[in-house]
Amino acid sequence: MTDFDLVPAPETTAVEIADAYGHLIGGAWTSPSGNRMSSINPANEEVLTEFSVAGADEVSAAVGAAREAFKSWSVLPGRERGKFLFAIARRIQERARELAILETMDGGKPIKESRDVDIPEAAKHFFYYAGWADKLRFAFPGREVGAVGVAGQIIPWNFPLLMAAWKVAPALAAGNTVVLKPAETTSLTALRLGEIAQEVGLPPGVLNIVTGAGETGAALVDHPDVDKIAFTGSTVVGKAIAKSVAGTGKRLTLELGGKSPHIIFADAAIDEAVEGIVQGIFFNQGHVCCAGSRLFVEESILEVITEKLHRRIQTIRVGDPLDKNTDLGAINSKEQWEIIQGFLKTGAEEGATLHSPSKGEVPKRGYWVPPCFFTGVEPAHTIAREEIFGPVLSVMTFRTPSEAIERANNTPYGLAAGVWTDKGAKALEMAHQLKAGVVWLNSYNRLDAASPFGGYKESGFGREGGRQGILPYLKVDG
Ligand code: NAP
Ligand code: MG
Asked: Which of 106, 117, 118, 154 to mutate to test the pocket of ligand 1 (most atoms within 8 A of CB)?
């Protein structure tokens, strides 16, 4: 445990942010429209800029531009498309510092995460799918492959540029054209991606970006000339999208919420496991769809785990996201902060015990939730069932592996799971029986562009990443 304070190490904020932004449609930026929404820095509540709100007309114009561009982009040789993707990846790397600063200012996440995770991973996705662009025949040997058409892509606020990369890179590699709708609270880096597309000479209309709130997303989903919808966000909105797409012939992939279990056996390497659990839930303020938000501890080690968690949480530095020492930044928006506060209240009311052993004060302005965990949680408690999407861990116990599996699988979600044990056979058996799209053994939150990611049940369907991630963007014959 550290009992000293670090000298502040603030990252510069010398990045250009315009007063207002328009949309990228057909290779040109529209003037900022009269209908705008403010983007707030959640760490100090200052207005950073204003985004235009696209209505049905702008969405139609963007879809039209994508349709026009599809004619030539879809027949461009894969190796030529790949060159554009490589160029985008390299430009993301060149502009990495600026992108990381913007991501942190706009979304509240610590600079060390945006610098070391979000931006490099976004570049990696473009590099990875650039590699597939001229090898699609080999991805699906003996079969004819072709692009699907115009893809409408709607993304959330927790990994703004990275979620854009997850969706845009495979779509373009496969020869589709795109209309992207970023989240209303975090559109800045998606718009920078539009700039980058222009810088590398991506043909007009191949990537269009329209900003706005839920109505803009709905207009994109409902547009008759869109061939495929890819959505990442909440299960509620995902279900609504599934309903409106049903029967239209549009393709759909959904990456939705989660309530992922983390299971720790008494035979695990305890200190490593505690570190993995801490990273699994407190990374990015718990704004992670696959966050390990339910911890199942083998009963005999509950006391030691609780004590270690308590001590470790005290060393988590909460505060200015632009400070390079900060571990846990600001909650993304006032709305999300209120949702988390509601769960903290409900957790206590339902009889669980809150442990919030953070040191120091959080800044006066901005939206902050220090890391915390609940013990005495029952499976029926709200905090054991519903996605909190904040730095809040619910700790429960189990006695046998089969009880752990039963309790872990007792959820409508199925996105991810973590298992900590030093017994290989036990780990593999658990992985086999856990109903989750990804199961991490003695690690957590390990993602890779080459590895597919996605959920079961109410966590959605379809995969992103890897060879599987390109399939939703291809017509495969034979
Ligand atoms: P959300 O409200 O579902 O929003 C996601 C995106 O959809 C945003 O761009 C949003 O626009 C837009 N949207 C809202 N209503 C819409 C509608 N009726 N039709 C079309 N688009 C609409 O989710 P969120 O609260 O921003 O994000 C948090 C959720 O995303 C969590 O539940 C989390 O688990 C999930 N998530 C899942 C994954 C995954 O890979 N499985 C990854 C990240 C996040 P506005 O921003 O303007 O509202
Ligand atoms: Mg913002």
From this structure: 154
